[in-house]
Specification:
Number of helices: 1
Mean pLDDT: 82
Keywords: Chaperone
Strand order of the largest sheet: 6-7-1-2-5-8
Subunit structure: Heptamer of 7 subunits arranged in a ring.
GO molecular function, one term: ATP binding
Helix content: under 10%
InterPro entries: Chaperonin_GroES, Chaperonin_GroES_sf, GroES-like_sf
Family: Belongs to the GroES chaperonin family.
Low-confidence stretches: none
Number of strands: 8
Structural class: mainly beta
Strand content: 35-45%
Shape: elongated
Length: about 100
């Protein structure tokens, strides 16, 4: 099993809806939203503060099994190139700061 480090979390990406609520089928290249959705599979040990780790759940309330939305496309601020943080076809490794919303499933 992959174990994230620090404040990283491993998210299983949920399939994006390709049909609008009005029934229009969106082509693959037309659906390039900047927000992704997924289920948290694993979390890192958390934040190092005052000589000890504070868990991600303790600080952010985020835990395995929660549904999250996250910033999908990240760029390196030095090179302005996309950062590859996908693992296989359905997993992504992201930092807690890139989480936009979370909900219990």
């Amino acid at each position: 099993m992959i174990k994230p480090m620090g404040t990283k979390i491993l998210v299983r990406i949920l399939e994006e809806e390709r049909v609008t609520s009005g029934g229009i089928i969106m082509p693959d290249d037309a659906h390039q939203d900047a927000i992704g959705y997924g289920i948290v599979e694993a979390v890192g040990p958390g934040y190092w503060r005052d000589g000890r780790y504070l868990s991600i759940e303790e600080v952010d309330g985020l835990k395995v099994g929660m549904k999250v939305s996250f910033i999908k496309f990240l760029k390196d601020t030095h090179t302005n190139e996309g950062i590859r943080n996908r693992i296989g076809d359905d997993l992504i490794l992201i930092d807690t700061k890139d989480i936009l919303t979370m909900e219990e499933t």
